[in-house]
Design brief:
588 residues, alpha/beta, Enzyme I, Chain A, domain 2, TIM Barrel, 8-stranded mixed β-sheet, 8-stranded parallel β-barrel, globular, binds phosphoenolpyruvate, binds magnesium ion
C-alpha cells in the first residue's frame, strides 16, 4: 500500500485500475539532407504545421462544445503558437542552414524552448513547457506518422497515472474510459487542472512521485475531494472507500433534492449561498446546485487561458454571458487578481523574488492603468444589461481603494462622454483578505458598498504561511484564533455600519467553518458549486443561536488545533452524514 498526498483539483472519488502513461518523448535522429532537398523539407514542415493547425481548430471547436469557450481558449493559444514566427523561424533556419530533416528541426526547437521554460522552476512556466511538448508531438505526428501514445491502447475503464498531462491530453480523454487521473507535477491553476474540473474528472495533481509506485493494472483509489492517492490499498481502506463512495452517492442524491429548497436556518434566518466561478460556463452548475447567484467571479482566468491580453470585447462577452445566465440574480465580478501564482504572459517576463508580497492584484492593476481601464469599461458596459457588483481584490490601504474608485469614476466619465450605457449606481465593494484591512474595517466600511472576506489570503497573510507551499500546508489554518478574531471584528463593523458582508474563501465551503462564520454574523457564503448543497443542508439543520454559541466557545479557545477539533465535533453532531468517510482521511 502506498498513500500519496497531492493537490485535489477536481472533486470525486474513484476506485480503479492504474493505466501508467509515461509516453517516452520521441528521440528524433539528426538526419542530413542535400542542399537541393531544402525546399522539399521546408514544404514538409509547412504542411505539418498547417495540418496541425487544422486539427487544433477541430479540437478547439469540440472543446468549446464540451467545456465552453473559456476552456477552449487553451487551443486558441496552441494555434497562435504555431503561427508564431519566433518559434517557427528557427526551425526553418535550421533546415536551411544546418541541412537537417524537418522532424529534427521541429523536435530540437520545441525541446529547447520547453527546456528553457522548465529551467525557470516556476509553475506558470512549467505549464507552458507542457504546452510546447504537446504541440511538438502533434507536429511530429504529421511529419513522421503516428507517435504511439499508450492511451490509444486503452480499451477499458482506468485511472491514468502520469508524470504530467498536457491540456490536450486531458481534453481528449475518452470519458467512458478515463475515470480519474493523478500526476506527479501540476498545480491548481495549470490548464490541465482547469480542464479536469470542467470535464468533471476526479483528479489529484502535484503528487511528487506517484508514477514511481504505479504499475499497470494495480488497484488505486483517487480521492479528488481531499487530494489523496492510495496505490494498492489494503482491505480496510478499500471497504472504507467503497462505503464512502456509496454514502457519497446517496448524500449527493439527497443533496440534489435540496437544490430547490430555501437556504434558511431552523429559526427562519436566510443565509445566502452563492457560487465561486472561474468561467461563465460554470454558472448553470452553480444554479443547479442551488446557488442563488455568483459571489465571486475570478476574472483573472480570462488572462490565464490565452496568450494575449483579452480585448475589451472579450471581457464584455464574458461579463454579459454571466449577466445572461444569471437573469437578475447576484453577480459579483472581481477585478483581475493577477500576480503571485497567477501570471500573465507579460508578468512572466519579469518574475518577482517574493510574488505573494509583490506587485499582485489591485497593485498590479493600478500600475497598469490601460489594462485595468479596459476591464472596468467592459464590466460597466455589462452593468447596463443586468445587476452586477464590482469587487476590488487585495486592497491593503485606503489610498489604494480610493485610487481604484477614482479610476472607476474616470472610466464612467469616459463612457458617459461616449454615450455608452452603464449603471452609474453600480455597487462597489472590496475583498477583506489582508490583516491591515480587517483591523481597519471601520474606516473602509465608510467607502464601500460591501465586503467579502477571502480566507485563503487572510490566513496566508495573518499567519505568514504561503498558501501554495506544501511544506507549510499543515500550518495553514482558518481555525487559527487570530483569523477568527479578525473575522469577528469585520462582522461586527459590517453589522454596525450596515455594510453587507460575505465570505468567499475556500473555508466558506466547509460546513465546519461555515457554522462558525454564521455564528460570527456572516449571512452570505460563496463557494464552489459542489460545496453549495452540503452548505444548504447545514444551514437548514441549525439555528442562529446554536451557531452563535459555537462561535462564542471557539473564540475562547487558544489554538487552531483545539478550534478545529471543536468545530468538527459540533458539526458532526449536527450533520453526521457529512462526516461519513472522514475517518478514512483521519486514519490515512
Ligand atoms: C481568497 O483569498 O480567499 C479568495 C477568495 O481569493 P483567491 O483565492 O482568488 O485569492
Ligand atoms: Mg485572495
Amino acid at each position: 500500500m502506498q498513500l500519496i498526498k497531492g493537490i485535489p483539483v477536481s472533486p470525486g472519488v474513484v476506485i480503479g485500475r492504474i493505466f501508467a502513461l509515461d509516453d517516452e518523448r520521441q528521440k528524433i535522429a539528426r538526419r542530413a539532407i542535400p542542399a537541393a532537398g531544402v525546399a522539399a523539407e521546408l514544404a514538409r514542415l509547412d504542411g505539418a504545421i498547417k495540418a496541425s493547425i487544422r486539427e487544433l481548430e477541430l479540437v478547439r471547436d469540440q472543446a468549446e462544445k464540451a467545456m465552453g469557450a473559456e476552456a477552449a481558449k487553451i487551443f486558441h493559444f496552441h494555434i497562435g503558437m504555431l503561427g508564431d514566427k519566433s518559434l517557427i523561424g528557427p526551425m526553418r533556419a535550421m533546415i536551411e542552414k544546418q541541412l537537417v530533416v524537418a522532424e529534427f528541426a521541429v523536435f530540437q526547437t520545441f525541446s529547447e524552448w520547453a527546456a528553457r521554460f522548465r529551467a525557470m522552476k516556476d509553475s506558470a512556466f512549467t505549464t507552458k513547457a507542457n504546452d510546447l511538448e504537446d504541440l511538438s508531438s502533434r507536429v511530429l505526428r504529421h511529419l513522421i506518422g503516428e507517435h504511439r501514445t499508450r492511451l490509444n491502447e486503452l480499451n477499458h475503464q482506468a485511472v491514468v497515472v502520469a508524470p504530467d498531462l498536457t491540456p490536450s491530453q486531458a481534453a481528449g480523454f475518452d470519458r467512458g474510459k478515463v475515470v480519474a487521473f493523478a500526476t506527479d507535477l501540476g498545480g491548481r491553476t495549470g490548464h490541465t487542472s482547469i480542464v479536469a474540473r470542467a470535464l468533471g474528472i476526479p483528479a489529484v495533481v502535484g503528487c511528487g512521485n506517484v508514477t514511481t509506485h504505479a504499475t499497470d493494472g494495480t488497484t488505486v483509489i483517487i480521492d479528488g475531494d481531499r487530494g489523496v492517492v492510495i496505490i494498492d490499498p489494503d482491505a480496510r481502506q478499500l471497504s472504507e472507500y467503497q462505503a464512502y463512495i456509496e454514502q457519497r452517492k446517496v448524500f449527493q442524491l439527497s443533496l440534489d433534492e435540496l437544490a430547490g429548497l430555501e437556504s434558511i436556518t431552523r429559526d427562519g434566518v436566510e443565509i445566502e449561498l452563492l457560487g465561486n466561478i472561474e468561467f461563465p460556463q460554470e454558472i448553470p452548475l452553480v444554479l443547479k446546485c442551488g446557488g442563488e447567484g455568483v459571489g465571486l467571479y475570478r476574472t483573472e482566468f480570462l488572462y490565464l487561458t490565452r496568450e494575449e491580453e483579452p480585448t475589451e470585447e472579450e471581457h464584455f462577452a464574458a461579463y454579459s454571458e454571466c449577466v445572461r445566465h444569471l437573469a437578475g440574480r447576484t453577480l459579483v465580478i472581481r477585478t483581475m487578481d493577477l500576480g503571485a501564482d497567477k501570471y500573465t504572459q507579460r508578468q512572466q517576463e519579469q518574475p518577482e523574488r517574493n510574488p505573494f508580497l509583490g506587485l499582485r492584484s489591485i497593485r498590479y492593476c493600478l500600475k497598469n492603468l490601460p489594462m485595468f481601464k479596459t476591464q472596468l469599461r467592459a464590466i460597466l458596459r455589462a452593468s447596463a444589461l443586468g445587476p452586477l457588483k464590482i469587487m476590488f481584490p487585495l486592497v491593503t490601504s485606503t489610498q489604494e481603494l480610493r485610487q481604484a474608485k477614482w479610476v472607476l469614476r474616470e472610466v464612467m466619465e469616459d463612457l458617459s462622454e461616449e454615450g455608452i450605457a452603464y449603471n452609474p449606481e453600480v455597487d462597489v465593494g472590496m475583498m477583506v483578505e489582508v490583516p491591515s484591512v480587517a483591523v481597519m474595517a471601520d474606516t473602509f466600511a465608510r467607502e464601500v458598498d460591501f465586503f467579502s472576506i477571502g480566507t485563503n489570503d487572510l490566513v496566508q497573510y495573518t499567519l505568514a504561511v504561503d498558501r501554495t507551499n506544501e511544506r507549510v500546508a499543515s500550518m495553514f489554518s482558518p481555525a487559527h484564533p487570530a483569523v477568527i478574531k479578525l473575522i469577528k471584528d469585520v462582522a461586527r463593523v459590517s453589522r454596525r455600519r450596515g455594510v453587507p458582508l460575505s465570505c468567499c474563501g475556500e473555508a466558506a465551503g466547509d460546513p465546519e467553518y461555515a457554522i462558525l462564520l454564521i455564528g460570527l454574523g456572516v449571512r452570505t457564503l460563496s463557494a464552489t458549486a459542489a460545496s453549495i448543497p452540503p452548505l444548504k443542508r447545514l444551514v437548514r439543520s441549525v439555528t442562529i443561536e446554536e451557531c452563535e454559541k459555537i462561535a462564542r466557545k471557539a473564540l475562547s479557545l487558544d489554538s487552531d488545533v483545539s478550534v478545529a477539533a471543536f468545530l468538527r465535533d459540533q458539526t458532526r453532531k449536527i450533520l453526521p452524514e457529512a462526516f461519513d468517510g472522514r475517518s478514512i482521511e483521519e486514519r490515512a
